[in-house]
Amino acid sequence: MEVSMLERSKDLRGQLQIACLDNLVPPDHLLRKIDKAIDFTEVYPVVEHLYCQDNGRPAVDPVVLIKMVLIQHLYGIKSLRQTVKEIDMNIAYRWFLGFGIDTPIPHFATISYAFATRFPSEVFEKIFAWILEEAMNRGFVNAEVIFIDATQIKASANKNKKHKVQMEKVARVYDEQLRKEIDADRIAHGKKPLKDKKDDDDPKGGMREVVVSDTDPESGMFHKGEHKVEFAYTTSTACDCNNFILTHETAPGNTHDSIVFDSVYDKATTAFPEADTVAVDAGYKTPWICKKVQDDGRNISTPYKRPMSKKGFFYPYEYVYDEYFNCVLCPENQVLPYVTTTREGYRVFKSDPYVCTNCPSRQKCTMSQNNQKVVVKHIWSDYIESAEDFRHSSQGRASYSMRGQTIERVFADAKEKHGMRYTMLRGLRRVDDWITMKYAAMNLKKLAMWAW
Asked: Any idea where the domains of the chain sit in the sequence?
Protein backbone atom coordinates (compact mmCIF):
# COMPACT_ATOMS: atom_id res chain seq x y z
CA MET A 1 0.00 0.00 0.00
CA GLU A 2 1.45 3.35 -1.03
CA VAL A 3 1.65 5.89 1.80
CA SER A 4 1.68 9.60 1.02
CA MET A 5 3.10 12.18 3.43
CA LEU A 6 0.87 14.84 1.89
CA GLU A 7 -2.21 15.56 3.94
CA ARG A 8 -5.10 17.47 2.48
CA SER A 9 -6.97 19.63 4.97
CA LYS A 10 -10.71 19.44 5.24
CA ASP A 11 -12.95 22.34 4.31
CA LEU A 12 -14.39 23.47 7.67
CA ARG A 13 -15.79 26.81 6.53
CA GLY A 14 -19.35 25.64 6.94
CA GLN A 15 -18.84 24.04 10.34
CA LEU A 16 -20.94 25.36 13.22
CA GLN A 17 -19.13 26.08 16.47
CA ILE A 18 -19.94 27.73 19.76
CA ALA A 19 -17.17 30.20 20.64
CA CYS A 20 -16.74 33.17 22.95
CA LEU A 21 -15.58 36.28 21.13
CA ASP A 22 -13.45 37.25 24.13
CA ASN A 23 -11.42 34.04 23.77
CA LEU A 24 -10.61 34.80 20.15
CA VAL A 25 -8.76 38.06 20.90
CA PRO A 26 -5.09 37.59 21.95
CA PRO A 27 -4.47 38.56 25.59
CA ASP A 28 -1.71 41.04 24.64
CA HIS A 29 -3.61 42.70 21.78
CA LEU A 30 -3.26 46.50 21.65
CA LEU A 31 -7.02 47.03 21.92
CA ARG A 32 -7.11 44.93 25.09
CA LYS A 33 -4.42 47.16 26.57
CA ILE A 34 -6.36 50.28 25.61
CA ASP A 35 -9.62 48.92 27.00
CA LYS A 36 -7.91 48.23 30.31
CA ALA A 37 -6.01 51.53 30.44
CA ILE A 38 -8.96 53.95 30.39
CA ASP A 39 -12.68 54.02 31.12
CA PHE A 40 -14.59 55.01 27.97
CA THR A 41 -17.73 55.88 29.96
CA GLU A 42 -16.01 59.24 30.52
CA VAL A 43 -17.10 60.08 26.96
CA TYR A 44 -20.82 60.27 27.85
CA PRO A 45 -20.68 63.50 29.92
CA VAL A 46 -18.76 65.15 27.09
CA VAL A 47 -21.40 64.48 24.40
CA GLU A 48 -24.72 63.90 26.17
CA HIS A 49 -25.81 67.54 25.80
CA LEU A 50 -25.63 67.09 22.01
CA TYR A 51 -28.44 64.49 21.99
CA CYS A 52 -32.15 64.99 22.56
CA GLN A 53 -33.36 63.09 25.62
CA ASP A 54 -37.04 62.62 24.70
CA ASN A 55 -37.39 62.94 20.93
CA GLY A 56 -36.05 61.55 17.65
CA ARG A 57 -34.80 58.15 16.57
CA PRO A 58 -32.49 56.04 18.76
CA ALA A 59 -28.90 57.16 18.22
CA VAL A 60 -25.78 55.08 17.82
CA ASP A 61 -23.85 54.87 21.08
CA PRO A 62 -21.38 57.84 21.03
CA VAL A 63 -18.72 55.66 22.68
CA VAL A 64 -18.96 53.32 19.69
CA LEU A 65 -18.52 56.27 17.31
CA ILE A 66 -15.46 57.52 19.21
CA LYS A 67 -13.95 54.03 19.34
CA MET A 68 -14.47 53.51 15.61
CA VAL A 69 -12.60 56.71 14.82
CA LEU A 70 -9.85 55.78 17.26
CA ILE A 71 -9.49 52.45 15.42
CA GLN A 72 -9.13 54.36 12.17
CA HIS A 73 -6.30 56.51 13.57
CA LEU A 74 -4.61 53.76 15.59
CA TYR A 75 -4.16 51.61 12.49
CA GLY A 76 -3.78 54.35 9.90
CA ILE A 77 -6.89 53.44 7.91
CA LYS A 78 -7.34 56.08 5.23
CA SER A 79 -11.12 56.61 5.36
CA LEU A 80 -14.21 55.95 7.47
CA ARG A 81 -15.70 53.86 4.67
CA GLN A 82 -12.69 51.54 4.75
CA THR A 83 -12.72 51.57 8.57
CA VAL A 84 -16.27 50.18 8.61
CA LYS A 85 -15.23 47.40 6.22
CA GLU A 86 -12.23 46.51 8.37
CA ILE A 87 -14.32 46.45 11.57
CA ASP A 88 -16.90 44.21 9.91
CA MET A 89 -14.22 41.56 9.23
CA ASN A 90 -11.94 41.97 12.26
CA ILE A 91 -12.82 40.09 15.46
CA ALA A 92 -10.56 42.25 17.65
CA TYR A 93 -12.23 45.44 16.38
CA ARG A 94 -15.69 44.00 17.11
CA TRP A 95 -14.56 43.00 20.60
CA PHE A 96 -13.24 46.52 21.25
CA LEU A 97 -16.61 48.02 20.25
CA GLY A 98 -18.49 45.54 22.46
CA PHE A 99 -20.18 43.94 19.43
CA GLY A 100 -20.99 40.32 18.77
CA ILE A 101 -19.80 38.30 15.81
CA ASP A 102 -22.89 39.21 13.75
CA THR A 103 -23.77 42.66 15.15
CA PRO A 104 -24.38 45.11 12.26
CA ILE A 105 -21.75 47.84 12.03
CA PRO A 106 -23.04 51.45 11.88
CA HIS A 107 -23.01 52.93 8.40
CA PHE A 108 -19.97 55.07 7.64
CA ALA A 109 -22.26 58.03 6.82
CA THR A 110 -23.56 57.97 10.40
CA ILE A 111 -20.03 58.34 11.73
CA SER A 112 -19.13 60.98 9.15
CA TYR A 113 -22.21 63.05 9.98
CA ALA A 114 -21.50 62.87 13.71
CA PHE A 115 -17.93 64.09 13.34
CA ALA A 116 -18.67 66.67 10.65
CA THR A 117 -21.92 68.12 12.02
CA ARG A 118 -23.04 66.89 15.42
CA PHE A 119 -19.77 67.01 17.37
CA PRO A 120 -18.14 70.46 17.64
CA SER A 121 -14.39 70.91 17.90
CA GLU A 122 -14.66 71.20 21.69
CA VAL A 123 -15.57 67.49 21.90
CA PHE A 124 -12.35 66.41 20.21
CA GLU A 125 -10.29 68.81 22.30
CA LYS A 126 -11.84 67.42 25.50
CA ILE A 127 -11.16 63.84 24.41
CA PHE A 128 -7.54 64.75 23.65
CA ALA A 129 -7.18 66.54 27.01
CA TRP A 130 -8.82 63.62 28.87
CA ILE A 131 -6.37 61.07 27.44
CA LEU A 132 -3.40 63.36 28.13
CA GLU A 133 -4.61 63.90 31.69
CA GLU A 134 -4.78 60.14 32.22
CA ALA A 135 -1.13 59.92 31.15
CA MET A 136 -0.22 62.78 33.48
CA ASN A 137 -1.98 61.15 36.43
CA ARG A 138 0.14 58.04 35.95
CA GLY A 139 3.36 60.06 35.83
CA PHE A 140 4.11 59.29 32.19
CA VAL A 141 4.41 62.93 31.03
CA ASN A 142 7.75 64.69 31.49
CA ALA A 143 7.45 68.30 30.30
CA GLU A 144 10.75 69.57 31.70
CA VAL A 145 11.76 70.13 28.08
CA ILE A 146 9.11 70.98 25.49
CA PHE A 147 9.86 70.27 21.82
CA ILE A 148 8.04 72.39 19.23
CA ASP A 149 8.10 71.90 15.46
CA ALA A 150 5.76 71.84 12.47
CA THR A 151 5.08 69.43 9.64
CA GLN A 152 3.00 69.65 6.49
CA ILE A 153 0.02 67.47 5.54
CA LYS A 154 -0.92 67.19 1.89
CA ALA A 155 -4.39 68.61 1.29
CA SER A 156 -7.11 67.01 -0.82
CA ALA A 157 -6.74 69.65 -3.53
CA ASN A 158 -5.58 69.69 -7.14
CA LYS A 159 -2.57 72.01 -7.41
CA ASN A 160 -3.56 72.91 -11.00
CA LYS A 161 -6.97 74.26 -9.97
CA LYS A 162 -6.10 77.59 -8.42
CA HIS A 163 -6.39 81.35 -8.70
CA LYS A 164 -4.68 84.40 -7.23
CA VAL A 165 -6.38 86.81 -4.88
CA GLN A 166 -5.47 89.85 -2.80
CA MET A 167 -5.71 89.08 0.90
CA GLU A 168 -5.14 91.15 4.01
CA LYS A 169 -1.86 90.61 5.82
CA VAL A 170 -2.22 89.20 9.31
CA ALA A 171 -0.69 91.46 11.94
CA ARG A 172 2.04 89.85 14.04
CA VAL A 173 1.27 89.47 17.72
CA TYR A 174 4.32 91.49 18.71
CA ASP A 175 3.94 94.39 16.25
CA GLU A 176 2.61 96.82 18.86
CA GLN A 177 5.32 95.99 21.38
CA LEU A 178 8.02 96.21 18.71
CA ARG A 179 6.75 99.62 17.59
CA LYS A 180 6.95 100.97 21.14
CA GLU A 181 10.50 99.72 21.61
CA ILE A 182 11.55 101.11 18.21
CA ASP A 183 10.26 104.56 19.13
CA ALA A 184 11.98 104.35 22.53
CA ASP A 185 15.24 103.34 20.83
CA ARG A 186 15.01 106.20 18.34
CA ILE A 187 14.33 108.74 21.08
CA ALA A 188 17.27 107.40 23.10
CA HIS A 189 19.50 108.03 20.06
CA GLY A 190 18.16 111.53 19.42
CA LYS A 191 15.80 110.53 16.61
CA LYS A 192 12.14 111.34 16.26
CA PRO A 193 9.55 108.57 16.66
CA LEU A 194 8.36 106.98 13.44
CA LYS A 195 5.39 108.55 11.74
CA ASP A 196 2.31 106.43 11.19
CA LYS A 197 1.90 105.06 7.69
CA LYS A 198 -1.48 104.53 6.09
CA ASP A 199 -1.09 100.76 6.40
CA ASP A 200 -0.49 101.16 10.12
CA ASP A 201 -4.07 102.36 10.54
CA ASP A 202 -5.20 99.00 9.19
CA PRO A 203 -4.88 96.36 11.96
CA LYS A 204 -4.21 93.74 9.25
CA GLY A 205 -1.18 95.64 7.97
CA GLY A 206 -1.94 95.91 4.22
CA MET A 207 -2.54 93.48 1.38
CA ARG A 208 -0.65 90.59 -0.23
CA GLU A 209 -1.19 88.29 -3.21
CA VAL A 210 -1.72 84.61 -2.45
CA VAL A 211 -2.55 81.50 -4.47
CA VAL A 212 -5.89 79.97 -3.46
CA SER A 213 -7.11 76.48 -4.28
CA ASP A 214 -10.44 76.12 -6.08
CA THR A 215 -10.93 72.72 -4.43
CA ASP A 216 -10.01 73.55 -0.83
CA PRO A 217 -9.72 77.33 -0.40
CA GLU A 218 -8.65 77.03 3.25
CA SER A 219 -5.46 75.11 2.40
CA GLY A 220 -2.29 76.94 1.40
CA MET A 221 0.33 76.56 -1.34
CA PHE A 222 3.33 74.93 0.31
CA HIS A 223 6.91 75.82 -0.70
CA LYS A 224 9.89 74.66 1.30
CA GLY A 225 13.35 73.68 0.12
CA GLU A 226 13.25 70.84 -2.37
CA HIS A 227 9.77 69.69 -1.42
CA LYS A 228 7.20 69.35 -4.15
CA VAL A 229 4.97 72.39 -4.48
CA GLU A 230 1.47 71.44 -3.38
CA PHE A 231 -1.56 72.59 -1.43
CA ALA A 232 -1.19 71.53 2.16
CA TYR A 233 -1.92 72.19 5.81
CA THR A 234 0.72 72.59 8.49
CA THR A 235 0.37 71.48 12.08
CA SER A 236 2.63 72.99 14.73
CA THR A 237 3.02 70.47 17.53
CA ALA A 238 4.49 70.41 21.03
CA CYS A 239 5.59 67.19 22.74
CA ASP A 240 7.41 66.24 25.94
CA CYS A 241 10.55 64.19 26.58
CA ASN A 242 8.52 60.95 26.41
CA ASN A 243 6.85 61.74 23.06
CA PHE A 244 3.44 62.52 24.54
CA ILE A 245 1.81 65.19 22.40
CA LEU A 246 0.90 68.21 24.54
CA THR A 247 -0.90 70.49 22.07
CA HIS A 248 -1.01 71.50 18.44
CA GLU A 249 -2.21 74.23 16.10
CA THR A 250 -3.29 73.78 12.47
CA ALA A 251 -2.82 76.44 9.79
CA PRO A 252 -2.75 76.68 5.97
CA GLY A 253 0.40 75.36 4.34
CA ASN A 254 1.61 78.84 3.33
CA THR A 255 1.87 79.96 6.98
CA HIS A 256 5.42 80.15 8.31
CA ASP A 257 6.19 77.98 11.32
CA SER A 258 7.29 80.94 13.47
CA ILE A 259 3.92 82.70 13.08
CA VAL A 260 2.01 79.85 14.75
CA PHE A 261 4.66 79.45 17.47
CA ASP A 262 3.09 81.89 19.92
CA SER A 263 -0.20 80.03 20.14
CA VAL A 264 1.42 76.60 20.56
CA TYR A 265 3.97 77.89 23.07
CA ASP A 266 1.36 79.70 25.17
CA LYS A 267 -0.94 76.66 25.35
CA ALA A 268 1.91 74.27 26.18
CA THR A 269 3.50 76.42 28.88
CA THR A 270 0.13 77.32 30.42
CA ALA A 271 -0.69 73.63 30.83
CA PHE A 272 2.88 72.75 31.89
CA PRO A 273 4.41 75.75 33.70
CA GLU A 274 7.22 73.54 35.01
CA ALA A 275 8.82 73.55 31.53
CA ASP A 276 12.39 74.81 31.81
CA THR A 277 13.60 74.56 28.20
CA VAL A 278 11.94 74.90 24.79
CA ALA A 279 13.74 73.11 21.94
CA VAL A 280 13.06 74.35 18.40
CA ASP A 281 14.71 74.16 14.99
CA ALA A 282 16.40 76.92 12.99
CA GLY A 283 13.11 78.24 11.57
CA TYR A 284 12.15 79.49 15.03
CA LYS A 285 15.46 81.25 15.71
CA THR A 286 14.05 84.76 15.42
CA PRO A 287 14.51 87.76 17.72
CA TRP A 288 10.89 87.73 18.88
CA ILE A 289 10.73 84.01 19.71
CA CYS A 290 14.03 84.13 21.60
CA LYS A 291 12.81 87.19 23.50
CA LYS A 292 9.42 85.68 24.31
CA VAL A 293 10.88 82.45 25.72
CA GLN A 294 13.69 84.10 27.66
CA ASP A 295 11.45 86.81 29.12
CA ASP A 296 9.36 83.99 30.59
CA GLY A 297 12.42 82.75 32.44
CA ARG A 298 12.99 79.72 30.19
CA ASN A 299 15.87 78.59 28.02
CA ILE A 300 15.47 78.23 24.28
CA SER A 301 17.48 75.43 22.68
CA THR A 302 18.31 76.12 19.03
CA PRO A 303 20.70 74.66 16.42
CA TYR A 304 23.62 76.25 14.65
CA LYS A 305 22.43 78.55 11.90
CA ARG A 306 24.74 79.23 8.98
CA PRO A 307 25.68 82.93 8.63
CA MET A 308 23.67 84.63 5.89
CA SER A 309 26.60 86.00 3.91
CA LYS A 310 27.95 85.65 0.39
CA LYS A 311 30.78 83.26 -0.34
CA GLY A 312 34.15 84.97 -0.04
CA PHE A 313 32.80 87.84 2.07
CA PHE A 314 33.25 88.58 5.76
CA TYR A 315 30.85 86.81 8.12
CA PRO A 316 28.33 88.95 10.01
CA TYR A 317 29.91 88.11 13.37
CA GLU A 318 33.17 89.72 12.20
CA TYR A 319 31.44 93.09 12.46
CA VAL A 320 31.55 93.69 16.22
CA TYR A 321 28.98 95.87 17.93
CA ASP A 322 30.31 98.24 20.61
CA GLU A 323 27.43 98.86 22.98
CA TYR A 324 29.17 101.63 24.92
CA PHE A 325 29.90 103.82 21.89
CA ASN A 326 26.91 102.50 19.92
CA CYS A 327 28.89 101.70 16.81
CA VAL A 328 30.16 98.74 14.81
CA LEU A 329 33.81 97.87 14.22
CA CYS A 330 34.59 96.26 10.87
CA PRO A 331 37.36 93.63 10.37
CA GLU A 332 39.75 96.50 9.44
CA ASN A 333 38.98 98.23 12.78
CA GLN A 334 37.10 101.08 11.13
CA VAL A 335 34.10 102.59 12.91
CA LEU A 336 30.59 102.36 11.44
CA PRO A 337 28.49 104.92 13.37
CA TYR A 338 24.80 104.56 14.15
CA VAL A 339 22.48 106.13 11.58
CA THR A 340 18.87 105.21 12.39
CA THR A 341 16.45 102.51 13.60
CA THR A 342 14.14 101.16 10.90
CA ARG A 343 10.48 100.35 11.05
CA GLU A 344 11.36 96.62 11.17
CA GLY A 345 13.41 97.09 14.36
CA TYR A 346 16.92 97.12 12.93
CA ARG A 347 19.61 99.60 13.98
CA VAL A 348 21.50 100.75 10.88
CA PHE A 349 25.25 101.44 10.92
CA LYS A 350 27.01 102.89 7.85
CA SER A 351 30.67 103.27 7.01
CA ASP A 352 32.42 106.32 5.58
CA PRO A 353 32.63 105.84 1.77
CA TYR A 354 35.88 107.81 1.59
CA VAL A 355 37.53 105.37 4.01
CA CYS A 356 36.14 102.28 2.28
CA THR A 357 37.28 103.39 -1.18
CA ASN A 358 40.93 102.66 -0.39
CA CYS A 359 40.30 99.76 1.97
CA PRO A 360 42.31 96.63 1.04
CA SER A 361 39.44 94.38 2.15
CA ARG A 362 36.68 96.20 0.29
CA GLN A 363 36.13 93.31 -2.15
CA LYS A 364 35.34 91.03 0.79
CA CYS A 365 33.16 93.61 2.50
CA THR A 366 30.78 95.36 0.11
CA MET A 367 29.83 95.55 -3.55
CA SER A 368 27.89 98.81 -3.27
CA GLN A 369 28.49 101.40 -5.98
CA ASN A 370 29.16 104.16 -3.47
CA ASN A 371 31.67 101.97 -1.55
CA GLN A 372 29.66 102.15 1.64
CA LYS A 373 29.15 99.19 3.99
CA VAL A 374 25.79 98.96 5.77
CA VAL A 375 25.44 96.76 8.87
CA VAL A 376 22.13 96.14 10.64
CA LYS A 377 21.54 94.84 14.17
CA HIS A 378 18.09 94.05 15.52
CA ILE A 379 17.13 95.77 18.77
CA TRP A 380 16.40 92.28 20.19
CA SER A 381 19.62 90.71 18.90
CA ASP A 382 20.87 90.26 22.49
CA TYR A 383 18.27 87.52 22.92
CA ILE A 384 19.67 85.60 19.96
CA GLU A 385 23.17 85.93 21.42
CA SER A 386 21.86 84.53 24.72
CA ALA A 387 20.33 81.62 22.80
CA GLU A 388 23.73 81.04 21.16
CA ASP A 389 25.39 80.94 24.59
CA PHE A 390 22.87 78.34 25.76
CA ARG A 391 23.43 76.32 22.57
CA HIS A 392 27.06 75.80 23.55
CA SER A 393 26.19 74.69 27.09
CA SER A 394 25.88 71.01 28.04
CA GLN A 395 22.18 71.46 28.76
CA GLY A 396 21.61 73.11 25.40
CA ARG A 397 23.42 70.38 23.49
CA ALA A 398 21.62 67.63 25.40
CA SER A 399 18.14 69.10 24.92
CA TYR A 400 18.53 69.77 21.20
CA SER A 401 20.03 66.34 20.54
CA MET A 402 16.77 64.80 21.81
CA ARG A 403 14.71 66.32 18.98
CA GLY A 404 15.43 63.37 16.70
CA GLN A 405 13.90 60.92 19.16
CA THR A 406 11.02 63.14 20.30
CA ILE A 407 9.23 65.58 18.02
CA GLU A 408 10.77 64.20 14.82
CA ARG A 409 9.80 60.68 15.91
CA VAL A 410 6.26 61.88 16.61
CA PHE A 411 5.94 63.18 13.05
CA ALA A 412 7.50 60.04 11.58
CA ASP A 413 5.13 57.75 13.48
CA ALA A 414 2.13 59.93 12.65
CA LYS A 415 2.85 59.72 8.92
CA GLU A 416 4.17 56.18 8.58
CA LYS A 417 1.97 54.35 11.11
CA HIS A 418 -1.12 56.51 11.57
CA GLY A 419 -1.86 57.90 8.11
CA MET A 420 -1.08 61.60 8.60
CA ARG A 421 0.91 62.02 5.38
CA TYR A 422 -2.18 63.35 3.60
CA THR A 423 -5.79 64.10 4.45
CA MET A 424 -8.96 63.33 2.53
CA LEU A 425 -10.90 66.01 4.41
CA ARG A 426 -11.34 69.62 3.34
CA GLY A 427 -11.60 72.75 5.40
CA LEU A 428 -9.39 73.97 8.24
CA ARG A 429 -11.79 73.02 11.05
CA ARG A 430 -12.33 69.47 9.85
CA VAL A 431 -8.63 68.89 9.25
CA ASP A 432 -7.81 70.28 12.70
CA ASP A 433 -10.38 67.96 14.33
CA TRP A 434 -8.94 65.06 12.33
CA ILE A 435 -5.42 65.82 13.59
CA THR A 436 -6.67 66.21 17.16
CA MET A 437 -8.19 62.73 17.12
CA LYS A 438 -5.07 61.30 15.48
CA TYR A 439 -2.86 62.77 18.19
CA ALA A 440 -5.32 61.54 20.84
CA ALA A 441 -5.01 58.02 19.40
CA MET A 442 -1.21 58.24 19.44
CA ASN A 443 -1.20 59.35 23.09
CA LEU A 444 -3.70 56.62 23.92
CA LYS A 445 -1.53 53.96 22.30
CA LYS A 446 1.55 55.05 24.26
CA LEU A 447 -0.47 55.29 27.48
CA ALA A 448 -1.84 51.76 27.03
CA MET A 449 1.56 50.28 26.18
CA TRP A 450 3.22 51.89 29.20
CA ALA A 451 0.40 51.02 31.60
CA TRP A 452 0.17 47.34 30.56
From this structure: 21-119, 141-281+403-429, 316-380
